[in-house]
Design brief:
Blueprint: E1 2-9, E2 14-18, E3 23-30, E4 33-37, E5 42-45, E6 50-53, E7 59-63, E8 70-77, H1 82-91, H2 102-117, H3 127-150, H4 160-177, H5 188-194, H6 199-205
Antiparallel strand pairs: 1-8, 2-7, 3-6, 3-8, 4-5, 4-7
Helix pairs in contact: 1-3, 1-4, 2-3
Length: 212
Amino acid sequence: MFGGHKHTVNGGWTFFEQSHQVIELMIVTKGHQLTEIKDSRVIDLGPGDAILIAPGTLHTNRNADDYKKMTYMCLHFDFEDVELRSKIIGLLANKLIPAHSDLAHISGKILNDIVNLCKDKARRNDFEVQVDIEIILLQYLKQLSILVQKIKGYNLPFTDKEAKVGRDISVTIEDWVNNDDVNSAFTFSDICSSLHISSGYGHRVFKPEMSI
């Protein structure tokens, strides 16, 4: 499951607060974007910088400049591996991915490859094109899996209780994403409330220093 786009926006552009059921990858190619994560911080994305936004994260995006245009690329995607999704959310999501990093380079390449595949509007929905995009996405997930294992703290010990809560959060996110009866605008706080834990504890379990 995936969908994406590339846009150039005018100075002063802003997009309303939103959250998604799936992971969102964004990368800025020109200008600066300010991404504000609710109850957290504002992240300044410059040319080549990227961000992976976790499912259920309320956020707003806006052009940092009131006059100059900005260009960004975006991809929304989902996949079935709960363990890898948990590690992406816990170790990579909702923070700046600097332009000089391997992850930013890999993320920029996947988005450029997909944009190039979709240039021909008459063929972008063809089966062959969709398969090519899925292959690119699978290769990206493989690279993410390799990168996650290299992160300092990947193998740090954690309590059984924290591991269980982490798995419960991941499974609940997956269930809600795939359940048409659940409001698609659910947030991370909603997930935590359903598990009878505070959002603060939920975020702590998913903190970047911990693998779950």
